[in-house]
Design brief:
Oligomer: single chain
Strand content: 35-45%
Number of strands: 25
Largest sheet: 13 strands, mixed
Radius of gyration: 25 Å
Number of helices: 9
């Protein structure tokens, strides 16, 4: 039986500009791999312990190709993760006698090849079809596929001389269905994704982890490797950020230059909550009117037409305030957990977090349930000889209803 956090580096070769190949397995001391749903490319940082002055002898000059392939040592079935990279920077170089420590910063070959092409053309049709066309024609070749959710819009626009990755990211802000405007374009360790964030909510949980559980009351045979190694609340809510982003209450005025008319659209956290899909049915704050309702005056003014072609519309009534609300909703309840690695997980996956309480190890119904992984840092340490993952997890809702009953406290209650 393998130990917790055990890993296996299957391939870790660096090929220099002159064709020389070097195995990095025995000279790295750390590997960190980053992926998140708000970024269209992954990145890697590798700590190197150098006793042969490789920076000069190879030399390392920023034209090196790196193949990195790894998995976890487990009795279960796990697929390895493989990345094709190039070295882009050396940082944090420190010398100690005959030894030199430094970080090799790397990015994917896909990301670098992306700069060799530009998209500058008039396109028509649903945004999802335009993105698929750019992915197939302008972004290829890539070893990963595109997991795409069809949109229901009908665009007529010019992609303004952007790289393929930036084009697809830009188009995600315009895609929508009849009820959803939360499309994102990102890369994780399995694939590229073009989907609304609410579609990610509907996916099945890929794993369960335990927070604040001192013992296994769940009868989970894998409790030890699913118990969190570290946990931190990033936020439970963020009132000021919600106010500034127009989350609670906002309006947009669209100016139609062709018809010479203006239209006003309103959106409210309190009135429009039920218009959308959520992780849990209950909002993270009281919308009944019992609690204070923030109603700041947040106004936006946008053009409904394209100045280059006044017949083109931007569909702000279907996108602008909906997207603002849906994306801001996941910037309230946020935590970070560190767990032993599971290579089946990727940014954009759903997991289950089971929270204990400070009272008899009972389950915390407020936060126990499904969470979305928005960011992930893979951490392989040769010094500790283990592989962990730091996960940023969010949810837009809770498992209890508000207003809550008035509590009975032993101390601190006002008369």
């Amino acid at each position: 039986m393998s130990s917790l956090g055990a890993y296996n580096i299957l391939n870790f070769n660096l090929t220099s500009h002159n064709g020389f190949s070097l195995d990095l397995k025995n000279i790295f001391f750390s590997i960190e791999v980053y992926e998140e749903i708000y970024n269209n490319s992954m990145s890697v940082r590798v700590g190197i312990l150098d006793t042969e002055n490789l920076i000069r002898s190879l030399p390392i000059i920023g034209q090196e190709k790196v193949l990195l392939k790894w998995d976890i040592l487990s009795d279960g079935e796990y697929s390895p993760i493989e990345m094709n990279l190039r070295v882009t920077k050396i940082s944090k170089l420190q010398k100690a006698g005959q030894k030199t420590n430094y970080i090799l910063e790397m990015t994917t070959i896909d990301f670098l090849n992306n700069f060799e092409n530009r998209v500058s053309e008039y396109v028509e049709g649903p945004t999802s079809e335009i993105v698929q066309q750019i992915f197939d024609k302008d972004f290829a070749p890539t070893s990963k596929g595109l997991n795409l959710e069809p949109s229901e819009d009908d665009q007529k626009l010019v992609v303004p001389n952007l790289t393929p990755l930036k084009s697809m990211t830009w188009l995600s802000s315009k895609a929508h269905t009849a009820t959803d405007a939360s499309y994102l374009f990102f890369e994780n360790n399995r694939e590229y994704m073009f989907k609304p964030i609410t579609k990610l909510y509907s996916e099945e949980s890929k794993n369960t982890f335990y927070v604040d559980r001192t013992n296994n009351l769940t009868n989970d045979s894998n409790f030890e490797d699913k118990n969190t190694l570290a946990f931190e609340w990033v936020s439970n809510f963020d009132v000021l950020n919600n106010i500034s982003k127009g989350f609670y209450n906002s309006t947009v005025e669209t100016i139609d230059i062709v018809k010479k008319e203006a239209r006003l659209f309103e959106h409210s956290f309190y009135e429009n909550w039920d218009d959308y899909e959520h992780i849990e049915p209950n909002p993270f704050q009281d919308i009944s009117g019992t609690g204070h309702q923030y109603k700041p005056k947040i106004e936006y003014v946008v053009s409904e037409n394209d100045y280059g072609d006044l017949q083109k519309k931007h569909y702000h009534e279907d996108v602008f305030l909906k997207r603002l609300f849906q994306l801001q909703s996941v910037h309230n309840i946020k935590c970070e957990i560190t767990v032993y690695a599971d290579t089946k997980l990727a940014a954009g996956d759903m997991i289950t977090l089971n929270f204990g309480t400070n009272f008899n190890n009972e389950t915390d119904d407020q936060y126990t349930g499904s969470w979305l992984i928005t960011a992930m840092k893979h951490q392989i340490s040769r010094i500790k000889n283990d592989y962990r993952m730091q996960l940023e997890c969010v949810r837009d809702s809770v498992g209890v209803t508000y207003p809550q009953p008035i509590p009975i406290l032993k101390t601190g209650a006002s008369e």
